[in-house]
Amino acid sequence: MFYTSYLEISKSALIHNLSFLKNHIRKNVQISSVVKGNAYGHGIEVYIPLAESCGINHFSVFSADEAFRVQKSSTNNNTIMIMGLVEDEQLAWAIENEIEFYVFEFDRLEKAVELAKKLHKKACIHIEIETGMNRTGFSQKNIGKICQFITQNSAHITFKGLCTHYAGAESITNYYRIKKQQKSFQKSVQKFTDKKVIPLQLHTACSAAALRYPKSQMDMVRLGIVQYGFFPNKEIYIEYLTKKKITEHPLKRLISWKSKVMDIKTVKAGEFVGYGTSYLANSNLKIATIPVGYSHGFSRDLSNQGRVLIHSQRVSIIGVVNMNMITVDVTKIEQVQKGDEVVLIGKQGDLEISVSSFSEFSDQVNYELLTRLPQSLPRFVVD
Ligand SMILES: *Cc1c(COP(=O)(O)O)cnc(C)c1O
């Protein structure tokens, strides 16, 4: 095979996380697995069949290109929901393939009906309401007009969902803003109810909201980060541990990132290692090169900071992260050889490199590090 590093995706970890979620999501609430950003870096083509085999049958993406990849990777008849962009030229494809999509402007609503008529197929829409995030969503004052339009075109529209998104449910500093959004959403729901235009589902919750504000779960939750084994941020993690009086991380990371030692050599005391002068060897060193760099998603911020595991020992990155390579100090590992396994994320022996340890050095949140793992890295499902 042709690659310099690879990702392993653990099935047993996913099973574990889904059972954790089932304990926190009320009965009869649908779980939508959010797989935007290449399934948070886990790889859509690998993740969809895996999630299906664990009982997931609803997937949410950002855009039509991702929906297309989810559809191609599906073996079951899953529901696919686009939460962001569908362009006019993709809309016919979406309607024809029963892909559900958010609508947050009138021109898309009109276009959807126009195409639905032509295709003799109903467009399955989710109306997104602006409640305070101020990103996308119809403002409340449009609800009358939306209801009128849906009523007039009910032969061509399935009003599947009414939804909104919270502006940072993972941080308690946003508490009042989230509460205001919840009130605003309820008001919108009431307006639709008054007009007797009733959506099949109400949904507002991402991972943080589902855990912190259980009432936000409604009929469906859109869960991204937790299914992959991460809390949305440290705050939600600590809050969870405290509330449950536990000390162990209750989720399991699906992803591991591995490579191999590419070369080993020695450096004399007084020499610099790699580009420039950021690392000076204070003593004679044995160094190993590893064929992973910032082009593979390994941040340059980890220069002279990051750690990897080799022979079940933690070793330091010395010098700057290159485009395709890093250099580590393996002086203390006598038996190290070219070809030995290197763990960049994950476990080796008793040690582990977590994704959050990266975040500390590189100021990347979990989400960013994961989604920046290139699509070209091969991903293998392991037990
Ligand atoms: C990304 C996203 C989610 C999932 O967020 P997580 O924090 O990963 O659970 C839910 N809803 C919308 C609209 C999103 O964009």
Walk me through what this model shows.
- The chain has helices at 11-24, 36-40, 44-53, 64-73, 88-96, 106-119, 143-152, 175-194, 207-212, 234-244, 355-362, 366-371; strands spanning 5-10, 30-34, 58-63, 79-85, 100-103, 123-128, 157-163, 201-205, 220-223, 255-260, 263-267, 285-290, 307-310, 313-316, 326-329, 341-348, 351-353, 379-382.
- With 383 residues, it is an alpha/beta fold.
- Strands 2-3-4-5-6-7-8-9 form an eight-stranded parallel beta barrel. Strands 1, 10, 13, 14, 16, 17 and 18 form a seven-stranded mixed sheet that branches. The chain has a three-stranded antiparallel sheet with strand order 11-12-15, with no helix packed on it.
- Helix 9 (207-212) links the parallel strand 8 (201-205) and strand 9 (220-223).
- The longest helix has 20 residues, at 175-194.
- The radius of gyration is 24 Å and the shape is elongated.
- The mean pLDDT is 96.
- Bound molecules: pyridoxal-5'-phosphate.
